[in-house]
Specification:
By secondary structure, the protein is α+β, with helices and mostly antiparallel strands. The protein is built from seven helices and 15 strands.
Length: about 270
């Protein structure tokens, strides 16, 4: 039987360890369904380099559902508009009307940190200002809300499983939103955009979409980006089409307003996790 050279074996082992993971899936995503394989860069463009193990790399590898299925609501029914998306992320939406726009952004950021086992870095603020840390939740503490007062109460055994993490997120989604998330993020100039940045307008309801990938034309220096969102009511996360072109790529030089199929942002509404 022919054996593989030791260098090749070590290389394959390293690649297997380094590949991004998506903890909500029971099996690893098929390579052909990863975002970077499914959504080709425009002609003349190549994807920008990203740091290994970064949020950018993780988002670029997001698993997509095969083909172009309809976007489903948390009820299992199709979303009213089916013309806004290029692909659907293979990510559960839950059975309650919770994982809406800002919630989807927090879900993706939280899942990335969970995949890295960086539990101490997983925290989001409620609209009240209360900081909800997953590390506290994993110790068995739960949130008690009495009027405007929010506190931790020990109610469960220690549990850092993904099921526990998912329950933590639903609690965050209940008490947080665009108004709170917009205050947590740092403003950034569009010219300095990175994968993982968020266009967000805090409010009730407001809206938020996340930059899922970036590509650049080496000849002209022009850049384009992909956007992912959930919306109201809670629905599957999906990659947005650019209504101006019918493709999923948006030009970085979009002007003063970023027009997406269901919302319009201003140039000054780009922010970043710090």
């Amino acid at each position: 039987m022919r054996t593989l050279p030791m260098v090749l074996i070590l290389t394959l082992a390293t690649l297997a360890v380094a590949a991004p993971t998506y903890p909500w899936l029971t099996t690893p995503p098929k390579p052909e369904n990863r975002l970077e394989r499914r959504i080709a860069a425009p002609r003349g463009y190549t994807r920008v380099a990203v740091t290994p193990h970064s949020f950018a790399e993780w988002l670029r590898g997001l698993p997509l559902r095969p083909g172009r299925p309809p976007v489903l609501l948390y009820t299992g029914k199709p979303k009213g508009r089916q013309d806004v998306h290029a692909a659907v992320v293979d990510l559960d939406v839950g059975t309650r009307d919770l994982q809406q726009c800002a919630d989807a952004v927090m879900r993706l950021r939280g899942e990335y940190l969970y995949s890295r086992k960086d539990y101490a870095a997983i925290h989001f603020n409620f609209t009240s200002g209360f900081r909800a840390d997953f590390s506290k939740w994993a110790q068995g503490y739960r949130v008690a809300v009495r009027g405007a007062r929010v506190s931790w109460v020990k109610r469960a055994a220690a549990d850092s499983s993904h099921a526990s993490f998912r329950a933590y997120l639903d609690t965050v989604f209940t008490y947080a939103g665009t108004a709170s998330l917009s205050k947590e993020l740092a403003p950034v100039r569009v010219e300095e955009m990175q994968i993982g940045d968020v266009f967000i307008r805090g409010g009730f309801p407001g809206h938020a979409v996340i930059v899922a990938d970036l590509a650049k034309d080496a000849r002209t220096g022009k850049r384009v980006f992909l956007l992912a969102q959930s919306y109201m009511p809670a629905q599957q996360v999906h990659l947005l089409n650019n209504p101006a072109t019918g493709t999923p790529w948006y030009p970085l030089d979009f002007g003063e307003e970023l027009v997406t199929p269901e919302y319009v942002f201003t140039r000054g509404e780009l922010k970043r996790f710090t």
